[in-house]
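If you are new to this repository, start here. Below is one unmodified record pulled from the training split, so you can see the exact layout before writing a loader.
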Amino acid sequence: EMSENLRELVSIIFFKTKGNPFFASEFVTKIYREKLLYFDFEQKQWRCDIENVQKLEHTEDIVKMLIVEIEKLASDTKELLQIASCVGNTFTVETLSIIAKCDHKTIVSQLSPALFHGYIQPVYALSSVQFATTLEESSSFEIGDDLEFKFVHDRVHEAFYTLVPDSKRPTLHYEMGTQLKAQDSPATWTPSYLFSVCHHLNRGRSLIQNDEDLRALVDINIMAANLAHKGGAHQQALQYSEVGFEILESLSDDVWTDFYECAVELKHVAIENTYLLGKFEQAEADLNLLLKKVNTLEERIHSRRLFYALCGTIGKYDESLKQGMLILEELGVELVGLKAAPEKKWQSLLEMIPTRRANYFSSLPLDSDFSFVAAHTTLAEMFSIAFFLQEFDIYSSIPITAAMTCIKKQRRSIVTGPTLAALALQYQILVQPSQVSSEFCSVGLELAMATDDHWSITQTVVLASMVSVFFQNLEEVEEMFRSVK
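And here is the target side for that same chain:
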């Protein structure tokens, strides 16, 4: 039966280590080595010096305790793990081999003591001790490039990193980044390799003296930022974009003149990820700054549409509609008859159509002019937002305006399909159910299906299916959805 003395020790261990197995093991090892835990041969039981054990550090100070133990490792093992701590929480033998300029077997041999002590472990099934024993007993053990280890806990990683002097860290990171970068061309880098190169060079960039190398690091940050954004790592994407811009500012007093394209791309990534991180005011401030710097209407619209899409993505529909209206204003598009009755809007549209039939739009050539397509795409996207917000004046004017611009220019766009389907739905709901809406719906589907634009096809099918429901053509609705691949 456990004595009261040991029961009290168990409580102290749990309190000081928060129940973490690694910390608990290290704590027990420490008090045993300091003879605070010992076996009483007279009483034939384990005993503990509770008073002095209580004076030992809590988990918050575990790094200090670990450093004392780490200092007892062989110098080559300790130095190698300091390098590993700069690499990250996980590291491969190949990476350490490149940085330390040693062969694989030497690297693994120097890691073995840390495996025995339980500071690191292989990233697969064998335990640290089993792995180290296998290395010692088998001279034929194959060490692959992808052999990977990890620190057993963030605090262990922190302890080894703490041993690296602050003054030496930038140099270590710079050397790591430079050596990793030199191994292969960026086109062959895996995502993890790219992030590793970028991380180390960013940390050691104060040592880069060559402007050409700094400019190359900007491109690496752009690559990392875009990749992190695609992977949903918005904080990392923001950091990479900010570092990239800081480097540009160190290279020029006029970034927007000397490095215009890079500056625009970095700001786009920064704005998008700032917004997705919930920093709305900062994102809008950055957008307004960007809009003052961009040179062309196309870039202004692209920047606004980026912000407009972000607002819709996270459900800020009021702001999305506002940005949509600003885009139309910049493109010189004014919504037709905002305050007019739906019947009058429709009468005006039908009078403009030379044939008074929906198939007129099929005869129009497809136009890829940027302003024309941007206006039509924005109008098509605003349709559902206006309906959701119950802005019915705007809602009823959007497809009418899009159709009228087609007639005036005698051109159609890639989103004319959903425009005609929206007109059909509106006519059905706001004017009267008739063959007119069915005809607009059919032509809209025909035009959408002739494109390879998935959004246009899907949007048209959804709107057309709602029209068919009014006509109670449920079989037709089912067939529409089957047609979307």
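Two things worth knowing about this chain: The two ends are 70 Å apart (CA to CA). The mean pLDDT is 84.
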